[in-house]
């Protein structure tokens, strides 16, 4: 920045003026010069004009020289008599010298003179110099300096007033000066980290150019940079040249909160700057009156910095009509509430990590971090500051020019003791809070940061009224915020500030809040508890408890102890807990260590009580009056045997006894709790009875898994419409009729897992609004009462696994969307249907005992798209009405073991895309099936052993969209497949495994789209058919591999992957021998695995692969390993033209690709041959233990254009790298015309991503016929 440069060295001056005016007084003082000076002053441009100049004498004063040096710009007004003054000429020389030396801007103005007359000293300038030469003939050198200065100045860009009006000329000069000052005055912005983003966003929100009056608030926590951003925006707007940015006046009022009680003083300042005149009003009302009347016609730019009081805001901005359209007012504040809701608010957040590091380094080093030691320590400090600019500046400045040892010490201190400057700034927001809000803030900073808002509001409400309002205030003051996940959060340094306030007391017993277990233990051991302690919130598995210490904490309102032991053994105390403060509002203790609460404990103000653990057996022996108590949570108190007397708890709203596994009875006084909203008795496994409950306020009752509760209690009062009662898994045998008497508005009833329930009462008809009924896993339920048909709004009925259900009534299906009958194995007949069924209804009947489906079942389901009737083992036939489902896309009848046929009209399902009829008795599909021209997937796989042969009907140009056909183990024989099967033009996958044909139709070769053909376990198949031209994967048996491997690898067309399977039913020795024969045959033919690709082809080209589900790497792969990369040194003259074929590779695992590289002996880093080869896609059935074989032809790797004149034998290394899951691999070189193998010593190196020592091994070169 210019200013910093000026102050840093004597070579450059400090700019005290924006403009220096040089003029001939008698020519222009009272005309042009005075007009120019006035406009400069109005525009806020600081100008030096020597009003007292007499222009006598030869030299200018030192004061004037200094003024010239300290001015950023100089305006020289050349008039006819300018050169007659030696004063003016010497002033000109000084100005031009400063331009050369300091880079100042000089603007010449030609006032009624021709610029050429000045440049060449003609006319009046010639006359003046003629007189000077006569009078000062001894000073030829001085006159020469005058001439040079005049010529240089006249050559500069300026303004010739003869060509325009005076006002136009002045405007041009102002614009030129403003442009220059803009570049200079905004140069400080380059050092403001992240400022460009802020300015762009704020300027957009200001809407410059829109013809209105707009107020914008810049809001954020203390020290986040609000003032800096506002100042930068203010300066940026002032120097813009566009007419939209021209303001009649501008004012930046800083630190307004410092002027409490002196508002009129700030009003005077504001009016003086905006009106360019003195303002001396003695009271704020006069100031407001003047603002309203004098600024109405002025377009102004105002910044009100750091407002903390609503009155301050209104004293300046009571009415937007005070200002002319186009005016913009920016307000910075820590309190969001001070900004009117209809105004724009810009929130300033903490800096991101990279900008935090940049800002810290500016202040700590003024340059890059000197070394890695400082870099590591810097990151610790930056992490502590959490993006707060104030903290980054303060901490950075304090560590500047200090050594590593001091840094480490300072960081250690920083972690334990907050910086006082940072705390003082942040504490301003705290000091502005009301006492009750300060208390809330300290609670949050000490205990609740990171907790869910809902949970914390319960605590705050238990202690204070107006908790919601208080939290809003804290949010508006930027002290806390709510995350997108609903958690209360605050900045780290804000939390430090809050805890610092609490810790101001030296004695822990005098601190208002304790949150560290070690501090609490110290207070207990030393018995230093006092009245000052208000709240204790601890997380600890081991605590010491002292009754005497607790007796002094009479004002304790929160006692919250969380721990995670399985019993209370880690809580030590002096005997028993005999005293708890009666002032408690919130009492929470996980694994409470005693059998009961102290008899002296009379917490009349207690709102929330939660205790759990194995020790608690009962509360009190006597009745307690607890009028404020609203919540009791004893869940998980496994030793609790009886509940307290509830008579004195008239305001109780929430009672949870869940998982109290030894609780047998709930005290009868519970009926007195008429305000009870929630009662949870779930998993009370020994509960046999509970009292009559007043349900007028009840919204939730859970008896879930109360397995010994056989009888439901009486109900007192009328239940709320929205009440939920959960009885799933309870031991209830029946439900009393009165249960549904007042539940006419209930919408959901969950009775699932009630294994003792035999029947539903007839009173279920009293639930006209019932929408969801869950009876799943009621294994003894035999009947659903016929009155269920009265529930006309029923949406979902779940009878899953009601294995004893034999019948249920006619169902009103007009609203029904979901009916679950799965595993209803005793249900043989489908119920009658009442009403018109919804098109989108889902009915699940898998594993049900239904023998048939009524035709009416499909009468109203014309829009159904998916129908799953699988696993209905008793289903004999499908009704023909199923063929009316014109929207049906998917139909499954798989595992319907008694289903013998499909409806003859199945071809009418025009939109059917998937038909699964596997594992049925169907042996001959109806001929109309070929009309299903949208069908994509068809399966009749059945593993039949009844001697019936499956016959597929002639295709006859049908099934045009069929992509997958599965006929696994269908006992197909010759003729079972139609001869015209080749007309299935879209077929991609054909699975014929496990059948008994000897020959396949020749037209299979015409399946132009076929990619996968599965012929495994075809025991009678004597020969392979001609393969389709686009076949990608073939699956066959090992015995077929031995017969056809030569044909497979030489005549495979586009075949890229062959999968072989072992012979099932044979012992390992037999399969081992077959495998050895297979690998030997493969060895003789592996060179044919080359693919017609070269190094210039697409890298995505697949390599042909053979897959075998065996575990051994064949012995002829002498180079073996387990790593994901192998690098081999090649023997000398390894490449023999027309003899070397390439590299054979096998691996066990699941790989996606391999990268092969040839590396020169003398590695120049430029001649590597590299090719990435994609391995064939693995199928879902592939195992990581399968053996895969593939061959890398030499032509794949060799690219002459990359060889740089080298021959193959100049390359001494080959490297293969694998991607995917690797178990082990084998590798070797292959040659032809050599029937024997020879071994060559070769050094190999494995590399699995880490450095390994070189290992000596032997690899093989193989000569093949």
Question: Can you walk me through this structure?
Answer:
With 1265 residues, this protein is of the alpha/beta class. It has nine domains: 166 residues, Rossmann fold (3-Layer(aba) Sandwich); 163 residues, Rossmann fold; 63 residues, no CATH class; 72 residues, Arc Repressor Mutant, subunit A (Orthogonal Bundle); 50 residues, no CATH class; 147 residues; 118 residues, Ribonuclease Inhibitor (Leucine-rich repeat, LRR (right-handed beta-alpha superhelix), Alpha-Beta Horseshoe), CATH 3.80.10; 164 residues, Alpha-Beta Horseshoe (Leucine-rich repeat, LRR (right-handed beta-alpha superhelix)), CATH 3.80.10.10; and more. The protein is extended. The two termini are 82 Å apart.
Topology, element by element:
Blueprint: H1 2-8, E1 17-22, H2 25-28, H3 32-42, E2 47-48, H4 62-69, E3 71-78, H5 86-102, E4 105-110, H6 115-120, H7 124-135, H8 140-154, E5 159-160, H9 166-185, H10 195-206, E6 214-219, H11 226-238, E7 249-253, H12 263-275, H13 284-294, E8 300-307, H14 310-317, E9 328-333, E10 344-347, H15 353-364, H16 372-385, H17 389-399, H18 404-416, H19 420-431, H20 435-448, H21 453-463, H22 467-476, E11 481-482, E12 488-489, H23 492-502, E13 513-514, H24 517-526, E14 535-539, E15 543-545, H25 547-551, E16 558-562, E17 571-573, E18 586-589, E19 608-611, E20 631-633, E21 654-656, E22 678-680, E23 693-694, E24 700-702, E25 715-716, E26 724-726, E27 748-750, E28 772-774, E29 796-798, E30 811-812, E31 818-820, E32 833-834, E33 842-844, E34 866-868, E35 890-892, E36 914-916, E37 937-939, E38 964-966, E39 989-991, E40 1012-1014, E41 1033-1037, H26 1038-1050, E42 1057-1061, H27 1068-1085, E43 1102-1103, E44 1105-1108, E45 1119-1121, E46 1125-1129, E47 1140-1160, E48 1169-1175, E49 1187-1193, H28 1194-1197, E50 1211-1232, E51 1237-1246, E52 1255-1264
Parallel strand pairs: 1-2, 1-3, 3-4, 4-5, 6-9, 6-10, 7-8, 8-9, 13-14, 14-16, 15-17, 16-18, 18-19, 19-20, 20-21, 21-22, 22-24, 23-25, 24-26, 27-28, 28-29, 29-31, 30-32, 31-33, 34-35, 35-36, 36-37, 37-38, 38-39, 39-40, 40-41, 41-42, 42-44, 43-48, 50-52
Antiparallel strand pairs: 11-12, 44-49, 45-50, 46-50, 46-51, 47-48, 47-49, 47-50, 51-52
Organism: Nicotiana tabacum
EC number: 3.2.2.6
Keywords: Hydrolase, Leucine-rich repeat, NAD, Plant defense, Repeat
């Amino acid at each position: 920045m210019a200013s910093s440069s000026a102050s840093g060295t004597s070579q450059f001056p400090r700019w005290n003026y924006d403009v220096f005016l040089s003029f001939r007084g008698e020519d222009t003082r009272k005309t042009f010069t005075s007009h120019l000076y006035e406009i400069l002053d109005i525009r806020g441009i600081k100008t030096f004009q020597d009003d007292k100049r007499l222009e006598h004498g030869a030299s200018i004063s030192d004061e004037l020289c200094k003024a010239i040096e300290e001015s950023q710009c100089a305006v020289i007004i050349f008039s006819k008599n300018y050169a007659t003054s030696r004063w003016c000429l010497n002033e000109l020389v000084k100005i031009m010298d400063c331009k050369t030396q300091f880079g100042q801007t000089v603007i010449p103005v030609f006032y009624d003179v021709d610029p050429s007359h000045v440049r060449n000293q003609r006319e009046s300038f010639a006359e003046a110099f003629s007189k000077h030469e006569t009078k000062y003939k001894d000073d030829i050198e001085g006159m020469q300096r005058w001439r040079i200065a005049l010529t240089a100045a006249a050559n500069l860009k300026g303004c010739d007033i003869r060509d325009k009006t005076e006002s136009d000329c002045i405007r041009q000069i102002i614009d030129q000066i403003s442009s220059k000052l803009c570049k200079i005055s905004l140069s400080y912005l380059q050092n403001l980290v992240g400022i460009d983003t802020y300015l762009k966003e704020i300027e957009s929100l200001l809407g410059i150019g829109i013809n209105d009056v707009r107020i914008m608030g810049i809001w954020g926590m203390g020290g986040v940079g609000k003032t800096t951003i506002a100042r930068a925006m203010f300066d940026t707007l002032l120097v813009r040249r566009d007419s939209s940015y021209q303001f009649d006046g501008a004012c930046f009022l800083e630190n307004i909160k410092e002027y409490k009680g002196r508002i009129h003083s700030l009003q005077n300042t504001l009016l003086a700057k905006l009106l360019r005149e003195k303002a001396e009003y003695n009271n704020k009302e006069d100031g407001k009156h003047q603002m309203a009347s004098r600024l109405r016609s002025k377009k102004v730019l105002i910044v009100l910095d750091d407002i903390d009081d609503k009155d301050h805001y209104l004293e300046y901005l009571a009415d937007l009509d005070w200002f002319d359209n186009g005016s913009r007012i920016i307000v910075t504040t820590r309190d969001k509430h001070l900004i009117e809701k209809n105004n724009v608010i810009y929130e300033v957040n903490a800096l991101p990590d990279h900008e935090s590091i940049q800002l810290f380094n500016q202040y700590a080093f003024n340059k890059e971090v000197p070394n890695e030691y400082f870099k590591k320590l810097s990151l610790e400090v930056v992490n502590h500051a959490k993006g707060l600019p104030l903290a980054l500046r303060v901490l950075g400045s304090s560590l500047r020019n200090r050594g590593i040892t001091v840094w480490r010490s300072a960081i250690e201190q920083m972690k334990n003791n907050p910086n006082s400057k940072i705390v003082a700034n942040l504490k301003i927001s705290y000091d502005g809070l009301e006492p009750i809000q300060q208390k809330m803030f300290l609670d949050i900073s000490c205990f609740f940061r990171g907790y869910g808002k809902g949970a914390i509001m319960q605590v705050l409400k238990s202690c204070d009224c107006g908790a919601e309002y208080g939290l809003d205030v804290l949010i508006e003051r930027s002290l806390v915020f709510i995350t997108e996940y609903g958690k209360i959060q605050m900045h780290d340094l804000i939390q430090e500030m809050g805890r610092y306030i609490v810790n101001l007391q030296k004695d822990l017993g005098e601190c208002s809040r304790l949150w560290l277990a070690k501090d609490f233990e110290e207070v207990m051991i030393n018995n230093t508890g006092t009245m000052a302690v208000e709240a204790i919130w601890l997380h600890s598995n081991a605590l010491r408890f002292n009754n005497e210490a607790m007796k002094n904490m009479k004002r304790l309102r929160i006692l919250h102890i969380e721990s995670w032991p399985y019993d209370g053994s880690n809580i030590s105390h002096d005997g028993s807990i005999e005293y708890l403060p009666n002032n408690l509002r919130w009492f929470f203790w996980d694994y409470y260590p005693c059998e009961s609460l102290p008899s002296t404990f009379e917490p009349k103000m207690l709102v929330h009580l939660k205790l759990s653990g194995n020790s608690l057996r009962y509360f009190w022996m006597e009745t307690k009056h607890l009028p404020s108590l609203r919540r009791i949570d004893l869940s998980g108190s496994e030793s609790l045997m009886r509940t307290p007397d509830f008579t004195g708890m008239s305001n109780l709203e929430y009672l949870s006894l869940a998982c109290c596994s030894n609780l047998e009875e709930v005290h009868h006084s519970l009926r007195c709790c008429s305000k009870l909203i929630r009662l949870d008795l779930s998993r009370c496994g020994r509960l046999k009875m509970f009292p009559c409950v007043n349900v007028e306020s009840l919204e939730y009752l859970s008896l879930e898994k109360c397995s010994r509760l056989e009888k439901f209690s009486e109900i007192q009062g009328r239940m709320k419409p929205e009440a939920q009662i959960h009885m799933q898994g309870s031991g209830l045998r029946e439900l009393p009729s009165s249960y549904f008497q007042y539940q006419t508005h209930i919408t959901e009833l969950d009775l699932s897992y009630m294994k003792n329930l035999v029947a539903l009462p007839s009173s279920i008809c009293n639930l006209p609004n019932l929408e969801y009924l869950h009876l799943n896993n009621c294994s003894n339920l035999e009947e659903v009462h016929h009155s269920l048909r009265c529930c006309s709004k029923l949406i979902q009925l779940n009878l899953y696994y009601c294995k004893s259900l034999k019948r249920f009534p006619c169902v009103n299906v007009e609203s029904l969307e979901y009916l679950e009958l799965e595993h209803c194995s005793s249900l043989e007949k489908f119920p009658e249907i009442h009403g018109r069924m919804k098109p989108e209804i889902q009915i699940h009947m898998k594993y049900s005992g239904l023998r048939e489906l009524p035709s009416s079942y499909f009468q109203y389901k014309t829009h159904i798209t998916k129908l799953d009737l699988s696993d209905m083992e008793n289903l004999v036939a499908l009704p023909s009405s199923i063929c009316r489902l014109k929207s049906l896309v998917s139909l499954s009848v798989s595992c319907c073991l008694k289903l013998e046929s499909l409806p003859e009209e199945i071809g009418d399902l025009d939109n059917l895309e998937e038909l699964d009829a596997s594992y049925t008795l169907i042996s001959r599909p109806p001929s109309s099936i070929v009309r299903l021209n949208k069908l994509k997937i068809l399966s009749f796989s059945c593993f039949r052993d009844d001697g019936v042969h499956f016959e597929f009907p002639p295709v006859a140009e049908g099934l045009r969209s069929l992509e997958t056909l599965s006929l696994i183990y269908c006992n197909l024989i010759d003729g079972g497949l139609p001869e015209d099967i080749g007309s299935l033009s879209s077929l991609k996958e054909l699975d014929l495994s496990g059948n008994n044909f000897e020959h396949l139709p020749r037209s299979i070769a015409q399946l132009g789209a076929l990619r996968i053909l599965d012929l495994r376990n075809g025991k009678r198949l004597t020969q392979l058919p001609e393969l389709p031209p686009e076949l990608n994967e073939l699956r066959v048996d090992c015995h077929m591999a031995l017969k056809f491997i030569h044909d497979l690898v030489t005549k495979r067309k586009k075949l890229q992957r062959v999968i072989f399977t072992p012979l099932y039913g044979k012992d390992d020795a037999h399969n081992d021998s077959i495998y050895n024969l297979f690998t030997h045959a493969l060895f003789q033919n592996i060179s044919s695995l080359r693919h017609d690709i070269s190094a210039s082809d697409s890298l995505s080209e697949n390599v042909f692969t053979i897959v075998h589900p065996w575990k051994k790497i064949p012995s002829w792969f002498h180079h073996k390993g387990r790593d994901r990369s192998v690098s081999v040194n090649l023997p000398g003259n390894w490449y023999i033209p027309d003899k070397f074929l390439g590299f054979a590779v096998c691996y066990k695992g699941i790989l996606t690709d391999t990268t092969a590289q040839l590396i020169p002996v003398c590695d120049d880093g430029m001649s590597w041959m590299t090719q990435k080869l994609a391995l064939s896609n693995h199928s879902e059935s592939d195992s990581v233990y399968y053996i895969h074989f593939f061959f890398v032809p030499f032509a794949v790797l060799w690219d002459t254009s990359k060889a740089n004149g080298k021959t193959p034998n100049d390359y001494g290394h080959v490297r293969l790298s694998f991607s995917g899951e690797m178990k082990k691999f084998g590798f070797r070189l292959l040659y032809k015309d050599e029937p024997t193998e020879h071994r060559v010593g070769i050094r190999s190196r494995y590399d699995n991503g880490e450095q390994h020592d070189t290992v000596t091994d032997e690899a093989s070169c193989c000569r093949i016929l």
